[in-house]
Amino acid sequence: MLQQARQVLKQYFGYDSFRIGQEQVIQNVLEGRDTLCVMPTGGGKSVCYQIPSLCSDGTTIVISPLISLMKDQVDILRSNGIPAAFINSSLTYSQIDQTMEDVRNGLTKLLYIAPERLENESFCKELSQLNVPFVAIDEAHCISQWGHDFRPSYRIISNLVSLWNKKPTLIALTATATPSVIDDICSLLAIDEEDVYITGFSRENLSFKVLVGVDKDKYVKKYIQSYPNETGIIYAATRKSVESVYEMLLKSGVRVAKYHAGMTETERTKEQNRFLNDEVQIIVATNAFGMGINKTNVRFVIHYQMPRNMESYYQEAGRAGRDGLPSECILLYSSVDEQTQRFLIDQSLDRSRIPFELKKLQTMVDYCHTQHCLQAYIVEYFGEQVSQECGQCGNCTDERPKTDVTEETQKVLSCVVRMGQKFGKTITADVLAGARNKKVVDFKHLSTYGILKPMSSKEVSRFIEFLIAEKLLSVKPGQYPTIYVSEKGKEVLIGDRKVLRRLSEEPKVVIKDDPLFEHLRALRKQIADRESVPPFVVFSDKTLRDMCEKKPIDEESFLDVSGVGQNKLERYGEVFIEAIREFVS
């Protein structure tokens, strides 16, 4: 059987050998054993049911959750000479009738359908008349109530096999499944533990990075300018954010498309096709775009805002580098992102899932503040043990020195204890920073009040988030989450454990004898004298240093200089730009 499978792989797909895990899964399926395949995005899951289908008589039924994903798969199969079709809401009744006629006549090897289609009794009756050797369930995590993308319609699938006198072999496939989700899938589909194949969650060609508190618009613009010929996806949490980033890039001259649920289906299809056909460089999208993209040459994925859970993040980030080439996954985090996601979770129709979703959200917040290997953090979340760091993520390559923050940590932990371990990080940060707002009046008597001055409440809050990520503080989830000292944190309190943290800023480099800086400083002095103001009122030294670094020679790039706003552009832009042009020419 495997010899035939290899021949089919070469004939239709043009590969000489299978990827890791594919051969074992295919053999198991061809032996008629119901199988669960957990394989990372880009690992080649679809081949695991397509090859068995081509090695057998009849039509394989593929259950897929998204119209766009079905179309991508069918287009690829047809281009490889494989007869495939789909049935979903994008087709007319006559098109559906014709598709089913082709299936009945044995002209279709793979038929893709949406799970909701199984709610139609007459359609199920038609399926029962077909010769169906296999039923493939794509994005199988949707079947689990513990999954991040649970769909009640997927529960119907467990009854599907009863349609046929001879039971088809089931193959469930997913890229994002925690141990609890895997157990749930196996229980619902009656898949034995020995028929579960997990090839690992690590994507060695991806490098992960988290940036906290950066100017997101400036970063995105600069990053894209650095890679003008590379394709990328920018994910945002809300429609409003998608529109904002889209307009910002459009005005910057970037070839960009957008995708969100507020657009019509026709508009979304048009924009997605522009991206797939390389008519644009970038697409800005909400998570509605997550599972529906099969483009292989995406070189980077930027999350403009933090997603609500790790499954969504890894699935979306995994759109990068599907061709196996080195690609980047960058998450831009700010504390507002957490508030945005809490609001979106609170709007959930199923109130019973809110505590569960909030717990997942906290895992994402922890990811954004950990100083350990990011790839390892992700892989361990999905239940896989890691023996070594990836060596290429933003944390592994961060060369900033670490400083001992054990004393500061003890102060925070002590404050949490003295506040009864029943308050959130915001009010705790206010107490530690010695804030004077009304909320902390009742805590002014504590010995820990103001103990972390002169840090601001915002800085203390970030430090608390770091301690949560380091598992020294734990979070009790809920509408108003509270923090408490963990067992690991207690070891710090009694002096049995040290805490190290990377410096919050890059080490400052002293620039000496920069002739351009001296040139600009002299110009600044002339202007200041003429206007009878101190030189720093015109521009600070920091702004001049940034001018020396960026060397702006037009108004748009001059606005990118730190400390330059529209007003100063209008007042001083022309003269400074001219000075820089003369100097660099």
From TrEMBL:
Signal peptide (residue range): none
Domain Helicase ATP-binding as annotated: residue spans: 26-195
Xref: SMART domains: DEXDc, HELICc, HRDC, RQC
InterPro entries: DEAD/DEAH_box_helicase_dom, DNA_helicase_ATP-dep_RecQ, DNA_helicase_ATP-dep_RecQ_bac, Helicase_ATP-bd, Helicase_C-like, HRDC-like_sf, HRDC_dom, HRDC_dom_sf
Keywords recorded for this protein, A-Z: ATP-binding, DNA damage, DNA recombination, DNA repair, DNA-binding, Helicase, Hydrolase, Isomerase, Metal-binding, Nucleotide-binding, Zinc
E.C. no: 5.6.2.4
SUPFAM superfamilies listed in its UniProt record: HRDC-like (SSF47819), P-loop containing nucleoside triphosphate hydrolases (SSF52540), Winged helix' DNA-binding domain (SSF46785)
GO biological process assignments: DNA recombination; DNA repair; DNA replication; SOS response
Domain of life of the source: Bacteria
Catalytic activity: Couples ATP hydrolysis with the unwinding of duplex DNA by translocating in the 3'-5' direction
Start and end residues of each Helicase C-terminal domain: 219-362
GO MF annotations in UniProt: 3'-5' DNA helicase activity; ATP binding; DNA binding; four-way junction helicase activity; hydrolase activity; metal ion binding
Residue ranges of coiled coil: none
GO cellular component: bacterial nucleoid; cytoplasm; replisome
CC cofactor: Zn(2+); Mg(2+)
Ranges of residues in domain HRDC: 510-585
NCBIfam families (alphabetical): recQ, recQ_fam
Similarity annotation: Belongs to the helicase family. RecQ subfamily.
Protein name: DNA helicase RecQ
Species the sequence originates in: Lysinibacillus telephonicus
Lineage, highest ranks first: Bacteria, Bacillati, Bacillota, Bacilli, Bacillales
